Amino acid sequence: MADALLQPQAAPDAAAPPVLDMRGIARSYGATVAVRRVSFDIRPGEIHALLGENGAGKSTVVKVLSGIVAPDSGTVALNGRPYAPASPMAARAAGVSTAFQELSLLPNLSIAENLLLPRQAKGAAGLVSIAQGEARAAQMLDAYGLGHIHPGVLVRALSLADKQRVEIMRAVARQPRLLVLDEPTAALSDPGWLFEILERITAAGTGVLYISHRLSEVRRLCRRGTVLRNGESIETVSLDGIDDAGIFRLMVGAAARTAQTARREPKREVAEAFGVTHLAGGTVKDITLSVGVGEIVGVAGLEGQGQRDLFRMLAGVMPAGSGQIRVQGRPVRIASPADAARVGIGFVPEERKTEGLFLGLRTDINMTLPVLGRLGRFGVVDRAREQAVVAREAERVDLAARYLKLKIGALSGGNQQKALIGRVLAAGPRHLVLFDPTRGVDVGTKAVIYDLIRAFVDQGGAALVYSTELAELIHLVDRCVVVYGGRVAGEASGDALSEARLVALAAGHGV
Amino acid sequence: MQTSPASSGRDAALRPEPLVRRLLGDGTTIIIAILVVLTVVFAATQSDALSASVLTDILNNSLPLALAAAGGTLVVVTRGFDLSVAGVVSLSNVLVAVHGGSGPLGALEGALIAAGAGAAVGAVNGYFVAYWNLQSIALTLATMIVCSGMTLLILDAPGGDVSDFMTYTMTDRIGGVVPVALAIAVAVYVVWRLLRRTDWGVGLYAAGADETAALLAGVPVRRVKLIAYVLAGVCYGLAGFMLTALTSTGTPNVGEPYLLLAFAAIALGGTSFAGGRGGVAGSMLGALTLTLLQKVLFSTGVSSFYTGIFQGVVMIAAVVVAVLFARIGTRGEAHA
Amino acid sequence: MTQAPLTGNGRPADTRGGAGARGWLGRLDRDVRTALALFAISFGLVIASRVLGPNFGSLAQMKAILVISCFLMVVAFGQQMVILLGGLDLSVASMMTLGGVLAFKWVGGSDGAVLWGVPAILAVTAALGALSGAGVSLLKIPPFIMTLAMGVILYGATLGFTQGTPSGQPSAPLSALFANTAFGTPILYLMVLAVVAGCFVQTRTSFGRKVYALGTNPTAAYVAALPVHRLTIATYAISGASAGLAGILMLGYVRGVTLTLGQSYLLPSVAAVVVGGTSIIGGRGIYAGAAAGAVLLTTLSTIVDSLGIAEGWRTIIYGAVIFAALVLLRDDLAQLLGRRRRTQETSQNNP
Q1: By the 8 A CB rule, do A225 and A236 touch?
Q2: Is the Cβ–Cβ distance between A368 and A359 less than 8 Å?
Q3: Where are the alpha helices (DSSP H) in B155-196?
Q4: pLDDT: is A424 or C4 the higher one?
Q5: According to a count of CB atoms within 10 Å of the terminal CB, is the N or C end of chain C lower?
Q6: Does residue A339 sit in the same domain as residue A268?
Q7: How high is the pLDDT of residue C241?
Q8: Contacts of C325 (CB under 8 A, 6+ apart)
Q9: Looking at residues C296-325, what average pLDDT do you find?
Q10: Distance of alpha carbon A47 from its chain centroid, rounded?
Q11: pLDDT-above-70 percentage for chain B
Q12: Pair A419, A433 in one domain
């Protein structure tokens, strides 16, 4: 893909002091130890990877570097000088800039206002000048290849991908000494834009801390990486000299269950479980696809090509515009999530924190919510039956029992996702519709989720899965539909099911 | 694959919303429309409706509420609820009635006392909400109660001595043409527009939308909120000051109805209680609308027993319309 | 959100029951602890008031205070349910007045009328509450405005059909609830029952659980196919009925009604809920807390009222105690006393 763009990194200058030198950092929140001993360094012009499962301590490292929290112990040096920012602003002033995983843009402000926060461009009489602000912002946008976006646009009108680009751009534009990128490509299906920028700034000596689950990207960009596990930095490795299995071993502490298994046999003629014909609405122009009983059908595509609205229509979260939705051969009208549940569709939404989970409630309460009606009489919940259901679901999704009584907000991303899927399964759906179920989820949990989906269809269900991780998608699905421009660009199955083919279709090249 | 994001098939250029869309979604437009309708009804039912004296009278009557609603708007934008408006209006009303001097200088003195009292209460509110993380609705409820207690200590029955300047000149017209109330309202609005174009103003809306993101961007959220509460308090104080001019007396619990009316005006004006959206203009117009509504109901001969029903129905209708238009106005907002 | 970091968390395995992580049951304990603390403070206040004179600090006075706190307790249940949902009910004052006025007319005078009159009034107030709920849920009207408008409309209607003077008669069965019998005062037993039942409905019924969920995350509730509209309408209906019931009880105690009988219960109903530990944004809190808050506020106002000092000072003391309760019952008080340096806490969803 973007291989040709990125030259192998020139050896970083070994004589100059490291851009970042972190030694023995520890930080706890009350009784919870987030990080117990993290040490690593980043050389000038180096893109250094930070690897680890969810809960390993990566986000705490980001917070320490960004001035959001102070470490309990340990030292950090920036370009050889002690670095202990008292606030995010102080961190910025010292030359550390972060693009956060949870995008930190204000939706009700324009791009220009966001870029210039906290001090806007001033004009006459010291008052904020919108014109000057937008001019400055336009310059920045142009300089980073985003000239197609008008700086006066409110951030909430942007697509998720553009928001991510602006977030990254904002961090880079501050010309930091150290750039921290936390899952920067999560919403970008084409990271070439970012790679170009990184090439530019590392040539000038800026150090980059790169956090990503996508090993292929990490290998392309980084020479060294530090693996965190249980809040400790286990080892800093040279990425050339270690294979994926080796990295997983370091992350998990044992031989990891890889997500790779034999590619499935393409199914022959099967009855249709559910499907859509000429479906349109939102960003969907005209999509026709079908999922057979016992099949896993994948959906791939660049962001914003209609896949999100397709899934939302199937789930009833968004009303269908026109076209037909069929479940078990019969046309149905899905106007609400309740309708979808009624026809046996179980939906795993994209953003578990905002659309899926009730963070303030206990895990087991979360998991039984949809089936409460069946767990007792006269509306009273039968505790014994509830516990039985919870235990069964937890086992099914490989969620350790000790997490069940905790508030679900305290669980790691992977465990939260497992609990969410458990809840969806508890309602007994026959058709699963999952949107990016492995986003922000660690390697071990990914394998569990894929196994879950396989087990589900093996028992006679059907699944439609959208994922941005093509490498894993092709190992999971029987066939894959690619969407482009709100339509089906093509389909691939069997031998034709390869990453290259999917990528080509997704870019609109019907090879 | 190409690296330019523009190749992914979306529109080549993302422009800000078209004007019509923006107007529809802006709550101020709705309230102006409602106001126009009400004015027409009013003019139809009362013969001297559009005379200078009647208009001045309406403006005088709505100014205290408009000021209170303006102050409350600042807090609502930060996703807070400031219930102390009732207490501060009463407190400042009583303070001005008792301690206000005579003549223009006395009026100025009264205004300063009122603004100062409001600022002090606002500072307490803002400090505990912003720096101690107390829930604003609960805290301001407590300060409101304390304020009403202080009011009773100063004056436990209607009374006080309000100067003629206050009673007559403040409620009159400048040069016989421009009502003082209108001038004050415009002045307040102008100050607001200026404040809106400061770092604080931008920070206010940022903090209201997403405090965490605002903090990360370097906005001094706690200070921004504190200032919002203080300015709100000043507005409430001035509302009480103008109320003294209007009623020409100090009344200990005069501020009570202002609590619900101020928030009604804010909602009518299109400010969202979810924070990050709205403005002072809408709220002030909302206050004018509510006052005018009362006059209209009176002049159409609706029995005073039933005015309540009409007020309530109009409030609901206005908000439904506002919400509807707001949704039309924001419908185009994209998702991936 | 004062304990949890901005994104991501520490490993749950290392969590040893820290206040933020210990699930809902842990939180239940905290809420019950708050409730007990409030009851204790009320108790303490009454005892302490002995210094004011021989009539104070007695068991009889404590009983009397408990009895008159029943009205606020009942209203607070409905208010709390609505607040748990993330809303607010400003119509409770008018609803309560309506309940009392209707009881005066329909229930008063004949003993048997209680049997059909009370359910009828509850049905009416529930229906009106349901209307508010429909406005909030279906028409997306902000609860503040919807219930405010409903309250204004109801008051106007009540004013209208009574023409300013409610007519009717006291009701013997209702008054009997407040009579001092050999076994105590009946209303007290009912109150205990009510607290237990209220907590039960909230935590052990499917309806209550769903209300918590809806209040915690409305988007997720919709995606999870919870019946959002039905839940909202039902909750506001419950609030209407609670306020109506309070009005009916008021008739039993006062033996007469005025058009302002509900007026002084609006803000205290919110205060009782909040002081009792319920979060104003919803999803957290239990009825025992709100009931305890109601008792504390009633105790406070009773004692303060009999202090024989200027009304102004009495009001100030009342407000100051509420303020103190808020400060002392904060979630993150422990953390505040502990480590404050260089950690930016924000009141992210704190209205």
Answers
A1: yes
A2: no
A3: 164, 180-196
A4: A424
A5: N
A6: yes
A7: 96
A8: C38, C275, C296
A9: 85
A10: 20
A11: 87
A12: no
**Is C9 a member of any domain?**
no
Residues of A in contact with C280 (CB under 8 A): none
pLDDT at B24: 55
Q: Is residue C337 part of a domain?
A: no
Both A270 and A305 in a single domain?
Answer: yes
* Residue A311 located in a structural domain: yes
Domain borders along chain B are 50-327
Q: Tell me which CATH code domain B50-327 carries.
A: 1.10.3470
Structural domain ending residue among the three candidates A388, A409, A427: A427
CB B142 within 8 A of CB C322: yes
- Contacts A99 to C, Cβ<8 Å: none
In this structure, are A304 and A436 located in the same domain? yes
For CA atoms A454, A455, A456, A460, give the dihedral sign. Answer: positive
Q: Which residue of C has its CA nearest to A340?
A: C225
- pLDDT for the residue numbered A361: 87
In a domain, C338, yes or no: no
CB count in 10 Å sphere of residue B20: 9
Please report, for the domain that includes residue C163, its CATH number: 1.10.3470
* Contact status, residue B320 vs residue C141, Cβ threshold 8 Å: yes
Per the structure, how many domains does chain C have? 1
Q: Using CA atoms, how far apart are residues C69 and A160, in angstroms rounded to an integer?
A: 53
Q: How far apart are CA C10 and CA A28, in angstroms?
A: 8
Same domain as A311, residue A388: no
List pLDDT tens digits, range C272-293: 998 887 877 777 888 988 999 9
Q: Which residues of B touch A119 (CB under 8 A)?
A: 199
pLDDT, residue A266, reads 58
A321 Cβ contact list (under 8 Å, min separation 6): A279, A280, A281, A282, A284
Q: Residue C151 belongs to what domain range?
A: 25-330
**B206-237 burial: b if 16+ Cβ within 10 Å, else e:** bbbbbbbbbbbbbbbbbebbbbbbbbbbbbbb
Number of domains in chain A: 3
A258 or A74, greater pLDDT:
A74
- Check the CA dihedral B104-B107-B109-B111 and report its sign: negative
| A17-43 tens-digit pLDDT | 899 999 999 998 776 678 999 999 999
Q: Cβ separation of C322 and B137 shorter than 8 Å?
A: no
Q: Which residue has the tokens 């809920």?
A: C273
From A302, A274, A286, A104, select the one nearest A193 (Cα to Cα): A302
Contact B13 A165 (CB under 8 A): no
Give the chain A residue nearest B16 (alpha carbons): A153
Whole-structure pTM value? 0.81
Which of C5, C25, C342 has its CB closest to that of A405? C25
Question: What is the C-alpha end-to-end distance of chain B, expressed in Å?
Answer: 20
Last residue of a domain, one of A252, A282, A309: A252
For chain A positions 350-389, those within 8 Å of chain C (CB to CB) are 354-365, 369-370, 372-373, 375-376, 379-381
Render pLDDT for A465-509 as a digit per residue (tens, 0 to 9): 998 777 788 888 988 999 988 889 888 887 777 777 777 777 666
Is A120 inside any structural domain? no
Residue C206 CB: number of other CB atoms within 10 A? 19
3-state secondary structure of C49: helix
What does the mean pLDDT of chain A come to? 85
Token pair of B218 as six digits: 């370097």
Cβ-contact B290, B65 below 8 angstroms? yes
C89-130: per-residue pLDDT in tens? 999 999 999 999 999 999 888 888 888 899 999 999 999 999
CA distances from C192 to B235, B302, C173, C289 (A): 46, 47, 20, 13
Residue A54, pLDDT score: 63
Q: What is the pLDDT of residue B7?
A: 36
Domain that holds residue A270: 259-344+429-511
Backbone φ, ψ for residue C329 (5° rounding): -95, 15
